[in-house]
Amino acid sequence: MSTPIRVTIWNEFRHEKKNEAVKKLYPAGMHATLAEALKKRPGLEIRLASLDDAEHGLTEQVVSGTDVLIWWGHVAHSEVKDEIVTRVQKRVLEGMGLIVLHSGHFSKIFKRMLGTNCSLKWREAAEKERLWNLEPGHPITQGIGDYFELPNEEMYGERFDIPTPDKLIFVSWFEGGEVFRSGCCWERGHGRIFYFRPGHETYPTFHNENVQKVIGNAVFWAAPRIIQADSCPNYQPLEKIAPKDAQFGKAGVLQESKL
Amino acid sequence: MSTPIRVTIWNEFRHEKKNEAVKKLYPAGMHATLAEALKKRPGLEIRLASLDDAEHGLTEQVVSGTDVLIWWGHVAHSEVKDEIVTRVQKRVLEGMGLIVLHSGHFSKIFKRMLGTNCSLKWREAAEKERLWNLEPGHPITQGIGDYFELPNEEMYGERFDIPTPDKLIFVSWFEGGEVFRSGCCWERGHGRIFYFRPGHETYPTFHNENVQKVIGNAVFWAAPRIIQADSCPNYQPLEKIAPKDAQFGKAGVLQESKL
Amino acid sequence: MSTPIRVTIWNEFRHEKKNEAVKKLYPAGMHATLAEALKKRPGLEIRLASLDDAEHGLTEQVVSGTDVLIWWGHVAHSEVKDEIVTRVQKRVLEGMGLIVLHSGHFSKIFKRMLGTNCSLKWREAAEKERLWNLEPGHPITQGIGDYFELPNEEMYGERFDIPTPDKLIFVSWFEGGEVFRSGCCWERGHGRIFYFRPGHETYPTFHNENVQKVIGNAVFWAAPRIIQADSCPNYQPLEKIAPKDAQFGKAGVLQESKL
Amino acid sequence: MSTPIRVTIWNEFRHEKKNEAVKKLYPAGMHATLAEALKKRPGLEIRLASLDDAEHGLTEQVVSGTDVLIWWGHVAHSEVKDEIVTRVQKRVLEGMGLIVLHSGHFSKIFKRMLGTNCSLKWREAAEKERLWNLEPGHPITQGIGDYFELPNEEMYGERFDIPTPDKLIFVSWFEGGEVFRSGCCWERGHGRIFYFRPGHETYPTFHNENVQKVIGNAVFWAAPRIIQADSCPNYQPLEKIAPKDAQFGKAGVLQESKL
Fold first, then answer.
1. Nearest-CA distance from B13 to chain C in Å?
2. Is D173–B167 a contact, with Cβ atoms under 8 angstroms apart?
3. What pLDDT, in 10s, does the model give residues A110-161?
4. Which of A122, B173, D4, D30 gives the lowest tally of CB atoms within 10 Å of its CB?
């Protein structure tokens, strides 16, 4: 793991430009608001990237120099180029952390990493959300008590179409009557993935102290424990292999290349 | 679940045409050999498909009429069209079962479903493999005792780059000194996935009675428990939502479409 | 699996004798009410047992003749004898199904099977509970739609101190603001365990059609797939072991008994 | 987490007193050998305890002052008092780490934490064991390459009767033909548990550098992330509960004590 942890906050950054209400909440973009919050934590080096940057701001150099990538997208998932998604996926499997926020549940990268539809029920009614902490000992929930509340959020309801999380750390209660697995951890390849539900663009969620705390904690949790390139090696035997019938080839003699 | 279970056995079907040794073992293709074996089990309706068929034999009609898809591929993974992979993935998430054999670990569909590289160590030395049964109560291991052996197989060794299986049912011991998670179960969407390691084309593995038994058992295990199309519904509240500050919209009033 | 499935419904059966309100709801006991409901499903053979029966109604003969054991307890957990708990645990590990209801979360058998405290938040306020179905394809949720409601229930809230369930199938929303993992599946040994949250004695929960349906489904899901006694065998080698230095004993010669 | 991490190494400490061969390998006991090895790692404060100490060396004070408990037992599992096992279990659930070695698979504490029989196949033939590293990114495998070998060990073979590990990090290959899940991680309550297979008393396993490294790594991994006493609180509603029918009590009024 590098010191400091190099964080890239990726934001689609479209709502903030077009929607006055969103612009008012996040004048420089949600990623900038998050960056301000994360800067308060020592040990992080933060960079911003967004959809309309060249290569979406995720050049080979940026991705290979990122320890933890935070992702927010919504209306323009389809504009993210497949080759960039492949680049990010490759890096996560090598060990980079990935934190996917809110409507990023439908991003190409999240669906690519998990293999499922990642669909859910939803409603925009500015309703109350209460996130219950199921894992008080988990690094991501440090400083969060039994629960925290957001007075106005979009509702996401189950069934959330995801693989069973390795660890489920938050479950949300919604004013309108639904529940949701709001904090989910997975490991894929050598990388760690955290999905965190809150963060609708029309609400001041990313100004919320607990939301900032969770995302900050998640950055430390998701930081690489190892970075290791993929390989599929032809491997020499460690033990003697008995002589074989000629039909199937000689013992221990490698017969053709795989790739 | 339909009665009978409609099984499609997909085979790349290239080795059998080009390699004399493989042709001798599987004159009509490995899929045909498997079909012969599966026909002995009542309740299955079996169809064959292969890479060089139109749409790889996996038309919309075939896929939507398949309960369990068995997949063997090796040298031509890259020739499988992405839109067919997407079609199959969609169907698995709706509930279709997927059984991936041996070198199918590197198939597009397997990597798509799991999100990882699915890489491993490998060696072709006709060596002995012994598959240990970790779950004697699992439907897939019925009729298999503590273990079974294959006198000649390709070696696959750990680390196998997969998400932690929901259930690990076989672990292989190899003569040359390696181990491998040889029988792995996952659920994705509404579908079930089983990866089964043995099955190298130059060995008579698919003529082996235990291999046939495991694959047959897996068909019954993976048969759909439900078929349900994906949706991401805008959902009306079940409880009264308190009036909200005008800044964030009225309670319970849905404000924009998501998709 | 035996045909029919032999179900034993175990009830502490104390509240129904002492509390008029409970007696009115369940004149013959909650177990009797459940038995009436389950009798409507073909293929089940149902027996009742309760705390004040000899050996709590769980003699060696009863336990070894039970395929699925349903458990409800509350005020008298401590009166259940440890040797009976050991007997039941042994049978679950051999393959018997175990369904634990509501306040059974604090029963000796549940804590024994899981190894954790199984504690939670709670409140008796006759409030509304809505159980969301996370796994529409799971056998236990068949016939249940997206959710079902109970107008009056005790509240159980997270953190529920349990091992991560193998499969989480229901999450509850409570009127008073909490959430709970209400339907949890585990496998232990060869047996299957299902915890189902609802069922407070002062409410007519076990008369609820959906509750009955879930419990009935769970019986079929938890029915033994295998019954296999525990063993820890001294095992002969399958491969030749090379001669060893005299210091550590001869190859393949077993040196002392383990048990 | 305390600084330094307070480690208690518990050893049954019987073989070393009675068996000359064992005494020669471990003159002061296996726990003392391990302590020597662990002392090389900064940040650990190490204490020894054994079966024949008062309260097995695990007084309330010792247990509450332990961050990580290492456990080795074999012939005298049954002599460990149940109340001490209960004390240790309580502390693990509060957050203490537990590392169980080799024949500790049959210890009361391990079976108590996991709820299963923890049985396996076994053979003492001084054979070769090769432990394959499945999780190169896991803290416990740092400094271990793809695998490491032990020239002489007891064999343990599958099926190992344990709950599916949260994370499987080592799988062993044995000269005699078996495989085993040799490094298994679980979380229970707030505590972490690591089972590590090697360590038969008649072999110099605890002098092996890789074994020492793994156990040392595991101590850091298992160190408490939180220490939190169990509770099952009667909880006040966070939302207004609608007035209820008199039959079931008034909204939000707590009606009887649970415990």
1. 34
2. no
3. 999 999 999 999 999 999 999 999 999 999 999 999 999 999 999 999 999 9
4. D4
CB spacing of C239 vs D115 below 8 angstroms = no
The band of D252, judged by pLDDT with boundaries at 50, 70 and 90, is low
| Single-letter amino acid, residue D180 | F
Residue with tokens 């042709």: B23
Helices (H), B98-193: 108-114
Closest CB to D177 among C164, C239, C253: C239
Q: What is the DSSP letter of B102?
A: G
Q: Is B160 in contact with B150 (CB distance < 8 Å)?
A: no
CB contact under 8 A, A241 and B114: no
- B138 bridge partner residues: none
pLDDT single digits (tens) C152-204: 999 999 999 999 999 999 999 999 999 999 999 999 999 999 999 999 999 99
Minimal Cα–Cα distance from D120 to chain A, Å? 25
Q: How many CB atoms lie within 10 A of CB D230?
A: 14
- Give me the amino acid identity at C230: D
Q: Would you state the structure tokens that stand for residue A72, as one six-digit string?
A: 């927010």
Q: Of all helices (H) and strands (E), which one includes residue D93? A: helix D82-94
Amino acid at C199: G
Token pair in block for residue C24: 């009115």
Give the neighbor-by-neighbor strand order of the sheet with C191-196.
Answer: C44-50, C5-11, C68-72, C97-101, C191-196, C179-188, C167-174, C121-133, C147-157
ipTM: 0.95
Neighbouring C-beta atoms of residue D47, cutoff 10 Å: 16
User: Do D198 and D214 touch, CB atoms closer than 8 A?
Assistant: no
CA distance A95 to D139: 13
**A163, A230, A232 member nearest B163 (Cβ):** A163
What is the enclosing helix (H) or strand (E) of D30? helix D30-38
Fold assignment, C5-115+180-222? Rossmann fold (3.40.50)
C-alpha distance from A183 to closest chain C C-alpha (Å): 14
Is residue D240 within 8 Å of C127, Cβ to Cβ? no
CB contact under 8 A, D187 and C164: yes
CA distance C23 to C25: 5
What pLDDT, on a 0 to 100 scale, did the predictor assign at position C251?
59
What distance in Å separates residue D158's CA from the closest CA in chain B? Answer: 6
The partner residue sitting opposite B249, judged by closest CB among A124, A187, A239, is A124
| Structure-derived torsion over alpha carbons of residues C150, C154, C155, C160, reported in degrees to the nearest 10 | -110
Tokens of C54: 């000899």
pLDDT in tens, A157-214: 999 999 999 999 999 999 999 999 999 999 999 999 999 999 999 999 999 999 999 9
The fold adopted by the segment(s) A5-116+182-222 is Rossmann fold (3.40.50)
Interface test mutation site (partner C, options D19, D100, D123, max chain C beta carbons within 10 A): D123
Of A152, A181, A150, A125, nearest in space to B239 by CA: A125
Q: What is the CA radius of gyration of chain C?
A: 21
- Find where tokens 């365990």 sit: C193
* H-helix or E-strand spanning residue C5: strand C5-11
Instruction: Tally helices (H) and strands (E) across chain A.
Output: 7, 9
Q: For position B259, what pLDDT does the model report?
A: 37
Asked if B137 and C228 come within 8 Å (Cβ–Cβ), the reply is yes
Fold of D5-222: Rossmann fold (3.40.50)
Closest Cβ–Cβ partner in B106, B176, B188 for A237:
B176
Q: Does the beta-carbon distance from A190 to D228 stay under 8 Å?
A: no
Closest by CA position to B244, among listed A175, A26, A22: A175
pTM of the model: 0.96
Interface test with A, best of D226, D231, D236, D240 (most A CBs within 10 A): D226
Residue of C nearest to B140 (CA): C225
